[in-house]
Write the structure tokens for this entry.
Amino acid sequence: MKDHIFNLGNQLKTELEVSSNFTIPNYDNLLVVGMGGSGVAGDVLKNLIIENSNKKVEVRKTYNLPVIDNPENLFLLFISYSGNTEETISALEEAIKLDLNWGAIASGGKLLELANEHNKSFVIVPSGLQPRAAFGLMTKAVVQFLSNDIKVNGNTLCNEAGDYLNSLTLGKENSEIVALSKNLAKSIGKKTAVIYAGTPITYLVAQRWKTQINENAKSKSFTGYMPEVHHNEILSWEADVEGSKNNFILIFLKDAKDHKQVKKRYELTKSILGKEVEILEVENISSDNSIKDIFYLTLIGDLVSVYQAEFLGIDPYNINKIESLKKMLKGN
């Protein structure tokens, strides 16, 4: 898994195959459907579009479509690394019945079969990875679906971010970013990581950290959005102070773009909770390239999850429970 993480930069720079009829309309509304590692790529696309336009974007992570009152100027994007994700295919079949305008991203499977059958635009990503290990590829794929009237070059942003990640991982195990990630992983150990963030970008990455810790390190993790946590969750550390100290660790993903009051809230949180739970802080870079900012923190979180797995003697590739659940859902 570490090799895939060290390859994130190259994934962002990969030239992907598209369908021969590949065209993207100018849309006002975008609905992205995808689960897990595929769904988070949809979150990246949503962030990029909202940063650069007034278009409406929804990322949906379930079986069915929302109620669609006005399909005009609506585009749907279905994302599944395998091409066979049950929830995504279910929503797509609904879109086909409604004769909606859509496109697809997959490495193969039923999703690409349906795209071919219905003459829809699609992007093919290389196969052979677990979906969470293809985040760079899926991000490079989703930027191909930017509406033509958005004045930003998604490929350029991905390529620049890829070069930056490659510079950070040049020494691999001897790089500074690995040393940072190992220290964070050691601090987490067997504890439950609770990750707080205060901007759309850092909260997106906090959710990526959570799922990577869940899947790679087979450990519990949760996220919170600042300042919302100050209206409820800040009280949750009181009932079992000893348990909080021994079993949890709080991580702040901080950003130069945090609201000034959010910055103040982080400091106040340390003063209020510092005796009840260990607090770690990770500072994001600040650039004019949101893909670069997202993937800097993503790289750290991905590395943290695999080093945590290594320290705990866990196999990151083992997803037996997920595969067993899929079989049970199919009645096998």
